């Protein structure tokens, strides 16, 4: 009965209609590629699922229960993690501090608790090496390369055991080796029953790891097909509008 | 495997990453060395902080002053200097938190006057010192809460809100004091004046309070979630919010903390001077902000040092004291405070340019 079901999601920013009645569903263990031109509404849709925006109309159902997210934290509690396109990091904090931001590891004695820096550095280091990223947990994000920042944003989603991971262009700024690691991570997530929505402009990535591809054009979903039933050429046509719908 | 070895291997294969040449076990070693490696050592990171350089400036000025005036290095003068800067230091600790969120609180001087009056009236009416203390802190908390709510929830500019509060708090202090001075503090007057004005083990009580609070804030900035979240908000409020940090509530609490530091300073200050007037604390906001900024607080937000507040306040007081002892007219005081404020910001700019 689907992990996530979106029914008729519409979002307007004043006069701009970013999304028009988008339906989308995803099952556990499934990866869906979400593609579309710049400004097609991909990030907006991701942010609605992540509780960042409220849809103007439409319904979000998780495991067949209608939900309403007022804040990003509500979506996180519902088992949704997201890598934002702009990464949403604090430049003045270390990589580890960013990974744990909002859910810091703490030590406790009786009523007293304090930040457990050692544990956070260690866990963050493990997550970075799992991603094969040369990111040092103690470095300030300010000093980091684009790829290292992306690794921090991705590592954040690995802290909990989410049901659904949303990745908004997670491979935009990273090296070939790291792209392979992110794709491998997506496959691992699928194998362990997690669902992933991957927003990407990179056709090979989507065709490598995704089971389905959905295409948005100017806020409307124009296609939603199994990867085996389509081709990069068709998807390109759908994105540009050369093919009306499929 | 050590870090050096992997680096060496890399050097032997210039142009090739370590990835292709090393086997799986080496991966773990690299990851390990990456995990434990730190940008700079403890000392290295210390000399990168503003308070360290300001501390050096203090030592240098102090060194020069021993030659300029025999009165400088006396116990009496040191006692006076530390006691005088302690009041500003306590207020600057709170101000640093506000500045860390990229905010500003211009109302602390007026709040000092308002706290002086509410505290004075309460104790004059015959209430004990505990009640006086609670009234003083509640006054401060209320003012901080109003500032915070207007800034966090109504999204008003901190500069404007606290400028308004600067005028309003002072006016209320004048109204409720009926423009009269208070020098009668009821049954606990003796204890009250002892707390603010006397010393223990040769150190003024207010300096003890400053030491304890600095230690407390040091712990808060390093080990508490509250401190971590405040710094995160200063760095990127949007990202903090997306991470589930209750940004609005945090901001309100930050302004309340700042105000309550002022409330505490007021409590000590009235005890020290032995009288309360509604004109107390006029233009103190300048010295407090100067102390915070000289101590390394960055008005862009995201930077805070617990030690910065007392060190910045110490430098401001040292300038005042030195000019006095050197026989330079007091009229020059504000000039030098302003000069050092600008130099501090310049220093911070040069250092951050060096970093990037
Ligand atoms: N907060 C906002 N306020 C107003 N308009 C917005 C806002 N966020 C997005 N939009 C508009 O909504 C439309 C869709 O934007 P969105 O960011 O979802 O595109 P996208 O598909 O992610 O594009 P890209 O590939 O460039 O990331 C755009 O026209 C954009 O200008
Ligand atoms: Mg986008």
Describe this structure as you would to a colleague.
The complex is a heterodimer of chains A (246) and B (356). Chain A has 246 residues and is of the alpha/beta class. Chain A folds into two domains: 1-79 and 162-246, Rossmann fold (3-Layer(aba) Sandwich); 91-159, no CATH class. Chain A is built from eight helices and twelve strands. Chain A has helices at residues 42-49, 72-77, 95-99, 117-130, 146-156, 176-191, 203-209, 232-240, and strands at 4-13, 16-26, 31-36, 57-62, 65-67, 80-83, 106-109, 112-115, 164-168, 195-199, 212-217, 220-226. In chain A, the strands form three sheets. A six-stranded mixed β-sheet of chain A has the order 6-9-10-3-11-12, sandwiched between helices. A four-stranded antiparallel β-sheet of chain A has the order 2-1-4-5, with helices on one face. The longest helix of chain A is centred in the last third of the chain and has 16 residues, at 176-191. The radius of gyration of chain A is 18 Å and the shape is globular. Chain A starts with a strand and ends in a 6-residue tail after the last helix. Chain B is an all-alpha fold and 356 residues long. Chain B has a single domain (71-355), classed as ABC transporter involved in vitamin B12 uptake, BtuC. Chain B is 74% helix and 1% strand. Chain B has 17 helices and two strands. Chain B has helices spanning 3-12, 18-21, 24-36, 42-46, 50-68, 75-100, 108-124, 129-152, 158-177, 189-197, 205-223, 225-235, 237-242, 247-273, 284-294, 308-325, 333-355, and strands spanning 199-200, 203-204. A two-stranded antiparallel ribbon of chain B has the order 1-2. In chain B, a hairpin with a 2-residue loop joins β1 (199-200) and β2. In chain B, α7 (108-124) packs parallel to α9. Chain B is globular. The two termini of chain B are 32 Å apart. Mean pLDDT of chain B is 85; it is low at 1-40. The chains are: A alpha/beta (246), B mainly alpha (356). The interface between A and B is medium-sized, with 36 and 34 residues. The site of adenosine-5'-triphosphate (ATP) has 12 residues of chain A, from β2 and α1.
